[in-house]
Request: fold
Amino acid sequence: MVCVAVCDDEKEIGADLERTLIDIFDGQGVEAEIDVYFSGERLYRNMETVARYDLIFLDIEFAKHEINGVEVGRLIREVHDNNLVAIVYISWEKKYAMDLFAIRPMDFLVKPLGHGTVERTVKTYLKLSKLWEGAFVYKSGHKTVKVQFRDIVFFENSGKKIIIHLTDGSKNEFYGSLKTIYEENLKKFDFLYIHASFAVNFNYITEIKYAQLTLRNGITPMTISQNKREEVRACYREILKKRDTAAKMAVRL
Reply:
């Protein structure tokens, strides 16, 4: 299931895009739930409480008395601290490129929106989203527990226990070896093994330097151990390269 939001104050464009997306997702054999908004503030407020989206098509220009799409994107990234949702901006104008840089949109589409243009964007999203699909499975007592990798911010080694820090602030614990878990599972799902005590999810890194990195939610900068710094830098570059390649391949589909 892909949860999609369409946000455009031009009701006809919003309705047309909704129909186009339904047709495209059906053609891809992917189940999608699509919500349509006519106000950027309404979208933002709903995401504060109940709504969770994987992909957002967000108009930039709204009525003068409303916040524009650039500000909505900034609030989603900075206030909600949501770096996972893919944002696709739509506009009649091409002039917003520099304003959008800090928001890290997945794409920028110029109206009117053709079926082929939207379809290429959806295929790009589906291709990229597969890079972090999957679940981490572990034993806790007599129970087998499954946690989606996308919901894990980082793993922490604490003595013989491994602590999983989740996006909602909760923690899970189990017994194991972080080094073994990293080699067998985490590396292929874009985690960085930065220290004997920490393996972090690439998707939640907000800043990385030679000796430390910062994760979302204002988590105190985490030290990259000296003997892992070259390896971490190489893995970081490899992840960026892999994702860039996937995006280019998806666009060609």
